[in-house]
């Protein structure tokens, strides 16, 4: 079995540990609804599609999506409308939960003696915020975030992690949903890989799994 010999396991966060895309959509829709109610001059669907455009153009780490949305339709920054959106967004964000079998699978892997860590691209504060909200901050033994390692998820990112763990790359297994970020560069660094994906998806990963509980069987 190709995954045998792994001693540490790295997990991508977004759309691997929890349904990021789904939650982000829900939070943004909720923000837009609240802003329309507070006086944004737009219909909900129109405002939502405009917000999606703003997020695409300015990246998800930009701080003023809702300010820009307000200016777009009301031609000025209206603090009341923006605050309505921020409050609704935060309520939705407080509701993030891991995928159903994640917590149990992580605890089982830890019990079996694997070192388990998050390996994620993004801002460290934002990614740790997610781990705390998901209640996984003390289940995982640590997190490697691209901002702190000084490089995005490429081969160098994974090489650095193996070095920090004092392990040969072949003893590390990377688990994630994105072929180009989680699988290919980790493989290039010499790690084992498992891709979380739908049945039938093409992947160069050593294994494909539907969710993290699949990992338990493969590592047996
Ligand atoms: Mg991901």
Describe this structure in words.
The protein is of the alpha/beta class and 220 residues long. The protein has helices spanning 20-37, 44-58, 65-74, 79-93, 102-111, 124-134, 146-149, 155-164, 179-188, 213-218, and strands at residues 8-11, 115-120, 143-145, 172-176, 192-196, 207-209. It has a six-stranded parallel sheet, sandwiched between helices. Strand 2, helix 6 (124-134) and strand 3 form a beta-alpha-beta unit. Helix 2 crosses helix 3 (65-74). The radius of gyration is 20 Å and the shape is elongated. The model has no long low-confidence stretch (mean pLDDT 95). Residues 12, 14-16, 176-178 line the site of magnesium ion.
* Structural Rg: 20 Å
Q: Write the CATH fold name of the largest domain.
A: Rossmann fold
Low-confidence stretches: none
Please report the total strand number as a whole number: 6
Strand percentage? 5-15%
Instruction: Decide which structural class fits the backbone.
Output: alpha/beta
CATH architecture of the largest domain: 3-Layer(aba) Sandwich
- Could you give a short account of the major beta sheet? 6 strands, parallel
- Which small-molecule species are bound to the chains here? magnesium ion
CATH class of the largest domain: Alpha Beta
Task: Output the helix-strand order.
Answer: EHHHHHEHEHHEHEEH
Question: N- to C-terminal separation?
Answer: 10 Å
The figure for the number of domains is 2
CATH H-level superfamily of the largest domain: HAD superfamily/HAD-like
> Could you tell me the mean pLDDT?
95
Name the strands of the widest sheet in spatial order: 3-2-1-4-5-6
Share of helix among residues? 40-55%
Shape: elongated
**Distinct helical segment count:** 10
């Amino acid at each position: 079995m190709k995954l045998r010999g792994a001693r540490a396991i790295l997990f991508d966060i977004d759309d691997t540990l929890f349904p990021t895309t789904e939650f982000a959509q829900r939070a943004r829709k909720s923000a837009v609804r609240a802003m329309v109610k507070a006086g944004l001059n737009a219909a909900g669907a129109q405002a939502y599609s405009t917000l999606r455009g703003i997020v695409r153009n300015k990246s998800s780490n930009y701080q003023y999506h809702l300010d820009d949305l307000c200016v777009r339709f009301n031609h000025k920054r209206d603090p009341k409308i923006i605050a309505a959106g921020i409050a609704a967004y935060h309520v939705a964000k407080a509701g993030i939960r891991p995928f159903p079998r994640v917590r149990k699978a992580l605890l089982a892997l830890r019990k079996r003696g694997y070192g388990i860590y998050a390996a994620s691209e993004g801002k460290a504060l934002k990614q740790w915020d997610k781990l705390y909200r998901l209640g996984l901050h003390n289940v995982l033994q640590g997190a490697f975030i691209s901002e702190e390692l000084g490089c995005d998820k490429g081969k160098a990112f994974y090489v650095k992690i193996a070095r920090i763990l004092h392990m040969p790359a072949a003893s590390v297994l990377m688990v994630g949903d994105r072929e180009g970020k989680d699988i290919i560069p980790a493989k290039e660094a010499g790690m084992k890989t498992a891709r979380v994906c739908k049945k039938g998806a093409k992947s160069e990963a050593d294994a494909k799994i539907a969710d993290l509980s699949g990992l338990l069987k493969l590592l047996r």
